[in-house]
Design goal:
Glucose Oxidase, domain 1, alpha/beta, two-stranded antiparallel sheet
Length: 164
């Protein structure tokens, strides 16, 4: 599938105005081999704990995008190279992390797209706290399970329904 977020915005100005389509704040850095990716969202809410991130990525992704509300924490990483390889192996289209990643060179070698706030070398704790498949808020925007995520070099979009 080929798309451009700029073209989606231009073609759906009415949806932008009504809030059915929204643009995430431009705070995310791009990682992974896929500079563009899209798919329905699978959502997680965690804080400095990546047990649920791992368990989600161990399941078949079926072209979904894992959207992780990590609370914007810059104190540890929620996704590393092993999880990037799991995401690639299990068919995830991409990962959007409102938090940090680590092992950036390993993630950059994976055939997935990743957006994250920053890189941090410290791993997270492993307690298993958090929630899956709930409404989350990242970078000031609500994301529901099943919303469509479109990411490319120009930004990340969240749409209620598939647009492309």
């Amino acid at each position: 599938m080929t798309f451009a977020t700029c073209d989606i915005c231009d073609a759906h100005e009415d949806k932008l105005a009504s809030g059915v389509l929204a643009v995430l704040q431009p705070v995310f850095k791009s990682f992974g081999k896929r500079s563009a990716f899209s798919g329905p969202a699978t959502t997680l809410k965690v804080f400095e704990d990546n047990v649920l991130v791992r368990s989600a990525l161990e399941t078949p992704g079926n072209g979904h995008v894992l959207v992780v509300d990590g609370g914007g924490s810059l104190r540890c990483a929620l996704v590393g190279g092993i999880l990037g390889k799991l995401a690639e192996k299990n068919g995830w289209a991409g990962i959007v992390v409102h938090g940090c990643i680590r092992d950036s060179e390993e993630i950059n070698a994976c055939d997935i797209g990743v957006r994250a706030l920053a890189i941090h070398p410290q791993r997270s704790v492993r307690k298993g706290a958090g929630e899956r498949d709930i409404r989350i808020s990242i970078a000031g925007l609500a994301v529901d399970p099943g919303n469509w995520i479109y990411a490319d070099a120009d930004g990340v979009l969240v749409a209620r329904d598939k647009l492309v």
